[in-house]
Amino acid sequence: MAIVAQFKVSGCSAEKYDAVIRELGPGASPPGQIYHISYGSHDNIQVIDVFDSAQALENFGKTLAPILAKHGITAEPQVNEVYKIITP
Q: Which one of 38, 40, 53, 74 is at 20 to 30 Å from 14 when CA atoms are compared?
């Protein structure tokens, strides 16, 4: 079952976000990730992800969490099952 994770992110400027993406390298789009959206003001980037399963999000979190901590970023997810994805 696909899930959507809306993160309440603190301490994430655009510069820090870009640094995290660079550190993730090819892992910036991990297995199971369907969509990744970043939005917000330059000094307060927020994130929404859609994964094909809760397990895929959990697996990626093991890689992501230490990188976020290194940059002083916290991200608290609110996770819900996806009802429907409509693509053009």
A: 53
Listing from the earlier edge strand, what are the strands of the sheet with 44-51? 33-41, 44-51, 3-10, 74-81
Q: List phi, psi (to 5°) of 38.
A: -115, 145
Tell me the whole-structure pTM to 2 decimals.
Answer: 0.92
- For residues 8 and 40, what is the distance between their CA atoms, to the nearest angstrom? 11
10-59 per-position pLDDT tens digit: 999 999 999 999 999 987 899 999 999 999 999 999 999 999 999 999 99
- C-alpha to C-alpha distances, 6 to 25, 26, 76, 78, nearest whole angstrom: 22, 22, 8, 5
Q: Which of 61, 63, 46 is nearest to 11 (CA)?
A: 46
**How many angstroms separate the CA atoms of 59 and 14, rounded?**
25
Residue ranges of domains in the chain, CATH in brackets: 3-81 (3.30.70.100)
